[in-house]
Amino acid sequence: MGSRASTLLREEEIEEIKKETGFSHSQITRLYSRFSSLDKGENGTLSREDFQRIPELAINPLGDRIINAFFPESEDQVNFRGFMRTLAHFRPIEDNEKNKDHTASEPLNSRTNKLLFAFRLYDLDRDDKISRDELLQVLRMMVGVNISDEQLGSIADRTIQEADQNGDSSISFNEFIKVLEKVDVEQKMSIRFLH
Amino acid sequence: MCYVHRCVFVCLRVCAYVFAHLSACALPCSSLTPPAQVSPPQQQPLSLALNSSDAGLLLDVPVALRVFSVDYHHVQAPFEIVLWIMLASLAKLGFHWSGRVPAVVPESCLLIMVGLMVGGVIYGVRHSAPPTLSADAFFLFLLPPIVLDAGYFLPGRLFFENLGTILWYAVLGTLWNVMGIGLSLYGVCLLAPESLGDVSLLHCLLFGSLIAAVDPVAVLSVFQEIHVNEQLHILVFGESLLNDAVTVVLYKLFESFLRMPTISGVDVLLGGCRVVVVGLGGLCLGLFFGLLAALTSRFTSRAQVIAPLFVFLYSYLSYLTSEMLHLSGIMAIVTCAVTMKQYVEANVSQRSNTSIQYFLKMWSSVSETLIFIFLGVSTIQDVHMWDWPFVCSTLLLCLLWRALGVLLLTAVVNKLRRNAVTFRDQFIIAYGGLRGAICFSLVFLIDDFPKKRLFITTTIVVILFTVFVQGMTIKPLVELLEVKKRKRALPTVSEEIHSRILDHLLAGIEDVVGYWGQHYWKDKLVLLYYSFLIFTTRWQPTPQFSLVSKCDLHQCSNGRPTKCISCVFEFEV
């Protein structure tokens, strides 16, 4: 299974991905060529090192967490399906999708799923709560060394105070949704994927 | 309330009456041209005060020592200027006390009406037309503060995110409007040869170039009160600022074509090049002065009191230099303000920052008020030339071409934008294309020709129509069409933090996808900006200059958390 030809995308796979993620045919092939260019080992999967080789991602404050988000629980390799599944969260919400009936399973790029993705950036231990420590970690990554711990602590406290409704000093997913209800998440968390 | 209202208006009338009588005396004053001259004296030196010092001496030998005397000529020019400014400011005060009127009628309309009243009073008293706004005074003294204020408080992030669309509307939209209006007006003139036969194509194009441009002053004053969503606001407002380059070039181009005996294709091509030169030239000049100001502000720590002065001096210098070189002054001053703002705010003390902001607001407010009042006063002219077909068709064509232009351009640009400009927004963009004092001044500067009076009258009609009709109805229309409005509350701390995290997330995802989208360019630009900062101003993010030390993080728990958040995250790169 070493030749490149065998790792080329098959039509049935494209159809399955299309159904699961909602990307168009041309978008999928384009993203597949990006996937292949990142895949230096040519084994059809990406490892963390492959991601870390992307230069701008290395200097992004949230770089590590973003890379983590691509890998499913406790795995070190991600295949193309998983890659697309993660990227599907960032597909813009089309107008005709807004009126879909709610009996169908929610598409990956719905507002709730987008927010869930963002939530998981903070919540590393997956206990469905953002604790003060987790929040502090993220803030520290973004802010650097200029701010003292106690200043950062007061910002974190204020953030939790604004969101927390049940008084457990942590932010649950529902509280997270509520806090961001005025922010235009559908637009903010979307990328225009080229056709 | 009614009593106070009446008192204020009586005071205004008294002021106007007194002033009318005083100005019945000799007029060596400079900023107000006597109405007999139709083309204002461009070469008249702006001697603001001092040519009347001799006239002040009493020429006849006094018989006895005068204990008390009045010497008006000595102080005439500054006295009149101050009276006008006082009138403008009292008028502004009056409106805000006059009950429900400000809610319905925008301030600009009310000011024009006061101007009309005052003009009428002066006309009645002196039986000749009141002083008109000289183009020089407008372009050199009244316009710069407003544009500087607009540039300094421009929401930078939003502006740059939408820069492509704004430039698209400003350059292409203005060209479309100018050509459309000019050519169709020529068509109208051809259809009515008895009255309009001597208006040539070039004249029509010249007229088109000055009437097509959206005016930043009018847009600012009307849109300030209707609170539409920020994206829409920045699109209309950015367009009105940036279309100055195109307007200036086209106006000067057609004017020089009118003076030239023959025009060749090469001249037209050169004209096209000039657009680029004017726009980019203004931009570069603004950048240059902005960076100079940034550098200077670094050294003001020992003389903090004059730090605000540098902001004003450098901006005004950039404006004057670009006017001298016939480049776009508005672009220069806006670029200067945008460039120097971040650096100046970082380098200068908190008090100086506050003074800068307050002075900017005050000056721009006074300027704006004066402009509108003078618009009203100048409407009362001795000779208006009226021609029904020309005036009505100009009005219609302005509206029509703008609507068409916005529709077509948006259809194209929506394909490239992440969040499309909706039809409602498009309607407001088209409807919010207000004309103002810039057209008015430009029309006075045209070389004299038989139909110039007609052009002036038409311009006044268009301006009054757009400011009154469109200005008054845009607010109800915004409500009716349910255009998305600006969020009232400041973002909470959580919203700010999470928004920034999402920005980083999206930038990272764009890197993974290999797509050079908005976030990529924004990141690159921010990196460039900070490296420039470090290299040119030897600025280091030390505690001494960092904004964090300036803002009191205790405010996080008390009352104003978002201020501290934006301070904190300003330097997160």
Automatic annotation (TrEMBL), chain A:
Any one GO biological process: protein transport
GO CC terms in record: cytoplasm; nucleus; plasma membrane
One Pfam family recorded for the sequence: EF-hand_7
GO molecular function annotation: calcium ion binding
Keyword terms: Calcium, Cell membrane, Cytoplasm, Lipoprotein, Membrane, Metal-binding, Myristate, Nucleus, Phosphoprotein, Protein transport, Repeat, Transport
Residue ranges occupied by any EF-hand domain in the UniProt entry: 26-61, 110-145, 151-186
Similarity annotation: Belongs to the calcineurin regulatory subunit family. CHP subfamily.
PANTHER family: EG:114D9.1 PROTEIN-RELATED
Protein name: Calcineurin like EF-hand protein 1
UniProtKB/TrEMBL annotation, chain B:
Signal peptide: 1-20
Domain of life: Eukaryota
Tagged with keyword Cell inner membrane: no
Lipid bilayer topology: Multi-pass membrane protein
One GO BP: sodium ion import across plasma membrane
GO cellular component: plasma membrane
Cation/H+ exchanger transmembrane domain location: 86-479
Compartment(s) of residence: Membrane
Swiss-Prot/TrEMBL keywords: Antiport, Ion transport, Membrane, Signal, Sodium, Sodium transport, Transmembrane, Transmembrane helix, Transport
MF (Gene Ontology): potassium:proton antiporter activity; sodium:proton antiporter activity
Transmembrane feature ranges: 75-95, 107-125, 137-154, 166-188, 200-222, 234-254, 274-295, 356-376, 388-414, 426-446, 458-478
Chief subcellular location: membrane
Pfam families: Na_H_Exchanger (PF00999)
Family label: Belongs to the monovalent cation:proton antiporter 1 (CPA1) transporter (TC 2.A.36) family.
Name assigned to this protein: Sodium/hydrogen exchanger
Organism: Gadus morhua
Gene: LOC115552859
